[in-house]
Amino acid sequence: MSWQAVVALALLVAGGLLELIAVLGLCVMRDVYDRLHYVGVAGFGALLIGVAIVVRESFSLIGDKALLVGVILVITGPVLVQSTARSLLIRETGDWRSKVREHAES
Amino acid sequence: MNEWEIAAAVLGFALIPCGAIALLRDPPHGLAALELAGVLLTTILMLLAEGFHRQPFVDLAVVFAPLSLVGSLLYARLMERDL
After folding, report:
1. Inter-chain contact A91–B82, Cβ cutoff 8 Å?
2. Inter-chain contact A26–B32, Cβ cutoff 8 Å?
């Protein structure tokens, strides 16, 4: 087994575990805002798997695109979480700034 | 069955709790589950591309990742008001 295969396997296992932890967190948490945190975590799992594919394949067509997908998920994850939390705050309170003000005053 | 296909199968089973939360809980919880399921499905497509050495699967992942983001943002935006 070459060193590339070993590193790729380690990255694959790490990425897969990170995604499983994200699913576990989604199931265990009760509050929707706590649940949203795990969407960002799963993006890093995808990036690790993308890197695993690049390590195994080198920069092939599949490797390049897998890395691109991983980077897209890592970059867009926080954006998605932030805008979803904002929308849910508007749904709950009518204005997303109200909870921020409450936090600042307390 | 190689390690990539096994990982894809394991992550496929991880979609079940996401589906259950989306079906059984309130819409905001369902939206969080939908967003996570989008990331999982994108990863599964990457793994299948590597496992089967078929490039079309990774092309699907490249398309699905931004579309899943746009879809989730639209759902979030629509959810600001009671539907």
Report:
1. yes
2. yes
What ipTM does this complex have? 0.90
| B35 occurs within a structural domain | yes
What tens digit of pLDDT does each residue of A16-40 get? 999 999 999 999 998 899 999 999 8
| CA torsion through residues B71, B68, A75, B23, sign | positive
Q: Is the dihedral of CA A53, A57, A62, A68 positive or negative?
A: positive
Domain that holds residue B69: 3-78
Domain ranges of chain A: 3-105
The number of domains in chain B is 1
**Class at the top of the CATH hierarchy for domain A3-105:** mainly alpha
Q: Do A35 and B43 touch (CB under 8 A)?
A: no
DSSP labels for A55-97?
Answer: HHH-SSHHHHHHHHHHHHHHHHHHHHHHHHHHHHHHHHHS-TH
Residue B62 lies in a domain: yes
DSSP code for A59: S
Residue B83 within any structural domain of the chain: no
pTM of the model: 0.90
